[in-house]
Amino acid sequence: MKPTERPVLCLGEALIDVIKRAGTVEEKVGGSVFNVACGVASLGHPTSLASWWGKDERGKNLEAKLASAGVSVVPGSANAQKTPIANAQIDDNGQATYDFDLEWQVPPLPEVSGLSHLHTGSFAATLAPGASAVVEAVKAMSSQGTVSYDPNVRPTLMGTPEEVRPRIEELISLADVVKASDEDIAWLYGKDTPIETVLQKWKTMGPGLIVATRGPWASYALCANDRDMLAVDPLNIKVKDTVGAGDSFMAGLISGLLDAGLLGSAEAKQRLRKARLSDIQAALHRATVTSGITVSKVGAYGPTQAEVAEVIAADPTL
């Protein structure tokens, strides 16, 4: 950890993934923003999580994982009636589909002046009653530091694309970094809309960096200050499942941008707005490696700095 850093605050869901595959059922701690928090902390950055879970056994499991990853918990996060559940069905290709049993509220949040960066995403900003508090936190942080956002759409919780698109685009306009999957983009804008068209649209809304992940295909990255789009190949690795892959990518990206001085302060916000693709390549590389390590494991997994360094040392040409 870097104790002189102000912490990253991750604001969003923490839940239990009930993973069903080939006739077996397994419970693992998870949730998009929970996974990002664990990932950022494992990569060496002071990190806090504000979420909403219960004081039951599942909630204790969440807290144990957070403690082992070095994530601090914002007081009040354990005040739900019960800990949320995401039922994850894994198909023969390792792809996960979800349905949920949860409620979402936001505990009292720390002052933004004590934070370096805010990350949020998934249904946290769209599901009442907590969604409004998330948007207000993003607005407050955007004026003093930096914000990252991953729409991570969950149709069973978000309604229709038409209903949720204005809120998602509002958050994109407030964020410094936006990461979305090709599946997110297809759901929001239709399968026939090219990803490149959507990224260019989002670029005009204000983010400094936009990334689209595309599963086994190259990710796309677009900077506000660069006309070109960068394609970043994923690791060539045997996939166990894709649970947490996008969250691990997000954690690696946040970590890399923090270390590059492109996130974490009002000054970093301005540097990111002026950055070129060459300035963010190292962060994209870290994100690709962290995500690759995650899909080689079962369930969400946040690699450590040492694991990432080991992969890069084994093949510096990655």
Automatic annotation (TrEMBL):
Q: Which UniProt keywords apply?
A: ATP-binding, Kinase, Nucleotide-binding, Transferase
Per its UniProt record, what InterPro entries does this chain match?
Carboh/pur_kinase_PfkB_CS, PfkB_Carbo_kinase, PfkB_dom, Ribokinase-like
Q: Which residues form the Carbohydrate kinase PfkB domain?
A: 9-304
Q: Does the keyword Nucleus apply?
A: no
Q: Which family does it belong to?
A: Belongs to the carbohydrate kinase PfkB family.
Which Gene Ontology molecular function entries are recorded, alphabetically? kinase activity
Which Pfam families does its entry note?
PfkB
- What is the originating organism of this protein? Varibaculum cambriense
Q: Which residues cross the membrane?
A: none
The protein, known as = Carbohydrate kinase
Q: Which superkingdom is the protein from? A: Bacteria
